[in-house]
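Hey,
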Amino acid sequence: MAGSTHAPRPDHRAHRQGRPDAYCDRRKTLVLADLTGAALKALGLNNDISALADYSVSQAWAQAIHDADPRWQGIRYVSRQMNKGFAYAIFERSGLKKLRSEKLKVAQLDALCDLFNVVAV
């Protein structure tokens, strides 16, 4: 794999920005395949891998990385919705456990829908 990264500590500003929070028990460093920047280019890929509305391509890459080497505990990629940020897919073998999550309040949900131009039909 062209690169690896370690998952960053949670950014608590996300909660203040109205994004949902999930809290995980993280007592170890996760080893993630890096599908961003130079590491992505070294694989001959670009951000299209995470920008497509059809998730079958990105899911196939995640499955291939998962199956290729047991040391990978997940992947880091550029967020499709917030392309200046990263998103993470954590594999089950990471052992990461969700401690709790918080549901979005109506105002938070409305703000997210406005931010991403989502309209209920």
